[in-house]
Amino acid sequence: MSESSVKFNKISISKRAREIQGSPIRKLAFIAEARKKEGIKIFHLNIGQPDLASPLAVRDFMHAFSEKTIEYAPSNGLPPVLNAWKNYFFHCGIHFHENEMIVTTGGSEALIFALCAVCDPGDDVIVFEPFYTNYAGFASIANAKLTPIPLHIEDSFQLPSKEEIEKHITPRTKAILFCNPSNPTGKVYRKEELRELVDLALEYNLFLISDEVYREFAYEKKPISIANIPEVFEQAILVDSCSKRFNMCGARVGVLATKNKEVLDAVLKFGMARLSVATVEQLAMVPMLNNPDAFVKPMVEEFHRRRDAVYERLTRIPDVTYYKPEGAFYIVVGLPVNDAEHFAKWLVEEFDDNNETVLVAPAQGFYATPGKGKNEVRLAFMLNVPDLQRSLEIIEKALNVYRGQFI
Amino acid sequence: MSESSVKFNKISISKRAREIQGSPIRKLAFIAEARKKEGIKIFHLNIGQPDLASPLAVRDFMHAFSEKTIEYAPSNGLPPVLNAWKNYFFHCGIHFHENEMIVTTGGSEALIFALCAVCDPGDDVIVFEPFYTNYAGFASIANAKLTPIPLHIEDSFQLPSKEEIEKHITPRTKAILFCNPSNPTGKVYRKEELRELVDLALEYNLFLISDEVYREFAYEKKPISIANIPEVFEQAILVDSCSKRFNMCGARVGVLATKNKEVLDAVLKFGMARLSVATVEQLAMVPMLNNPDAFVKPMVEEFHRRRDAVYERLTRIPDVTYYKPEGAFYIVVGLPVNDAEHFAKWLVEEFDDNNETVLVAPAQGFYATPGKGKNEVRLAFMLNVPDLQRSLEIIEKALNVYRGQFI
């Protein structure tokens, strides 16, 4: 029975609510919890929640907190926090005034606001798949449509030609959304690739939404910020967050920065609707943003060692495919199985080696094209080097057992 | 030139972004800041940011915080926080299991999620105006359409008859959204009024989204929660928040609770997309939710005194109209001016009495019907009794001056 043929339907939720996918990163987590209760140790490679300690400066800030009233912050962010973001960007060679930014509840809210600001329902945003799976969730909330352009492990996830991307642009295409360095591929875009995106943006009047939350996690070359390409200043929306670089995922402090005044004004109005970002956690980020290196540099060195260890260990597992990540702290691995989600579930639910197993994120949820990524998983480098090596050993053993039982 | 007639438009933001209104509560705040720099004292009656101290238990929690890593919380909320919400609700005579709730970034996010869960773009939600102005912003973000039904000061803001409301219901009406006790009217819905809404929900298969963040701020009778009407369990979505009752506006910890599993599953997926609510501020709310009365009761007594003082002082100002609020901490006042926004701007920008003036919220932004509320302002009881009395004295004097200068 079509909905429009009936005057008043049975109570029902919205189409977007019916269609939004669950998080592939989080959906096996319940099984892992149950398994832990059976005494099985689980190595978590599923989620980008760093295992390292949060900065001591944050705890010091909390211990010294003496404000009488924890008030609403201004909708665009607390002045010292805006100033600290400005200082942090300046330190990175990126120039934004305080009035070109709004503090957001994590990079997540910045992305939702960016999509709402540039898209009306049914408008398109181009993404390169595999992409950070939550982009699909943000698009559902914003009622935007993601147009995925596939990249391939075997091509080092490089962007297709300008002509190839052009084929996907329609009059309803409003933006290209990308993550640089990329979650989940570890790709850091080359200058020529960014040039191609800039040319497309200029030619087709598109916004470029650049998610740069992994900026410092780059092991070969420094990523180029979208905010350093003056030609697209008016079309660039930069999304950033404290979560990863300060190991403060639980703080939910991000930022949206743009020199496009129309976008900023609109985003500020969305921001006014939701009032403000958590006051204490905003303030706790000020010392980190003002002095990032002391914390970030040694952490990135540790992730560099982890990246190398994962890569080295993977070379010894037969029949897997992968691309050596240049940045972020994830790797997409093609497995010699038909259904990586089935494997991942089996791995955490049924398999163990000496009472230990591994939780990974099936990569299919990082694709929007049906059927793509079916044999892939994403691993996050969230453990120390010996634990990562042990996790890959478990995966190798599990693959051998699994391939004897399933096709 | 119509947008669809051109293949690739000049870069432009979305329609929803162009149309979203700024916050009438916050838009004069910039002027107030400038005026303060000139040495003028401003009494803030514009925003519901209580002036009282936040609970000491929250500061104690922060001072004792010792977690090594500030991790992502689970998307549905940290287990002790869900448990504390359950305990809090139980204390209020409301019964929800932990798995019927999701912790949200303030009541704001709960309302955005509720609208996204029940509406597709262009679907209608009925609201009674004046309504909490940010409902319009949430609707813009969710691309839902608000259908306002006017209430009137002179009728004590009582709901119209069932037949009158029915006239506004269309096949695209998905929900009735209301605030009880109400911001901005101070209305606490009578049993018969809720009965009417319940009957309409049952008859037309509508969701009832009930914003109950002011539950304890009720000076005449206890409000009835939507969650205490078993007939609409499957159609009720309860929105709540710690902001007001624990004077923790800056913490941004709310909750969405519903016995409708489909809604809850959808909201959880929206929640997974944005990952989690700030970890520290969630945890800081646990002692408050587990033991609300010690803090809440004396605070509500203070607001009761303020409500009485405002009401008493208003009776002595000629030509103003108002309804004595039974709950929350706002009052909508009809002023003897043609354009209350012009008056409010003039009041904060140009007027002073002994170097003091007042910032109020023009009420027009609390209406969706064009032209409605043009002569009204909303006052929030955010000052102690003497300061409230002084503020109303200033408003009275300002009205006399203004009416000599403007019509």
Quick structural summary:
Two copies of one chain form a homodimer. Chain A is built from 14 helices and 13 strands.
- Trace the largest sheet of chain A across and list its strands: 2-8-7-6-5-3-4
CATH level-1 class of the largest domain in chain A: Alpha Beta
Largest pleated sheet of chain A: 7 strands, mixed
Q: Can you write the helix and strand succession of chain A as a string?
A: HHEHHEHEHEHEHEEEHHHHEEHEEEH
CATH architectural label of the largest domain in chain A: 3-Layer(aba) Sandwich
Helix content of chain A: 25-40%
Average per-residue pLDDT of chain A, rounded, comes to: 93
Oligomer: homodimer
> According to CATH, what is the topology of the largest domain in chain A?
Aspartate Aminotransferase, domain 2
Compute the CA-based radius of gyration of chain A.
Answer: 22 Å
Q: How many DSSP H or I helices of chain A?
A: 14
Poorly predicted spans of chain A: 1-6
Structural class of chain A: alpha/beta
> Mind telling me the CATH superfamily name of the largest domain in chain A?
Type I PLP-dependent aspartate aminotransferase-like (Major domain)
Number of strands of chain A: 13
Tell me the distance between the termini of chain A.
40 Å
Large-scale geometry of chain A: globular
Total count of domains of chain A? 2
Give an overview in words.
The structure is a homodimer of 407-residue chains. The first copy, chain A, is built from 14 helices and 13 strands. The first copy, chain A, is α/β, with parallel strands linked by helices. In chain A, 57% of the residues are buried. In chain A, the strands form 3 sheets. Chain A has a 7-stranded mixed β-sheet, sandwiched between helices. In chain A, strands 9-10-13-12 form a 4-stranded antiparallel β-sheet. Chain A has 2 domains: 18-53 and 294-405, Aspartate Aminotransferase, domain 1, CATH 3.90.1150.10; 56-291, Type I PLP-dependent aspartate aminotransferase-like (Major domain) (Aspartate Aminotransferase, domain 2). Residues 1-6 of chain A have low confidence and may be disordered. Chain A has helices at 15-19, 29-37, 56-63, 79-91, 106-118, 134-142, 162-166, 191-204, 261-273, 279-284, 286-290, 293-314, 340-349, 385-405; strands spanning 41-44, 101-104, 124-129, 145-150, 173-179, 207-211, 236-241, 254-258, 321-322, 330-334, 356-359, 361-362, 376-380. Chains A and B meet through helix 1, helix 3, helix 5, helix 6 and helix 9 of A and helix 1, helix 3, helix 5, helix 6 and helix 9 of B.
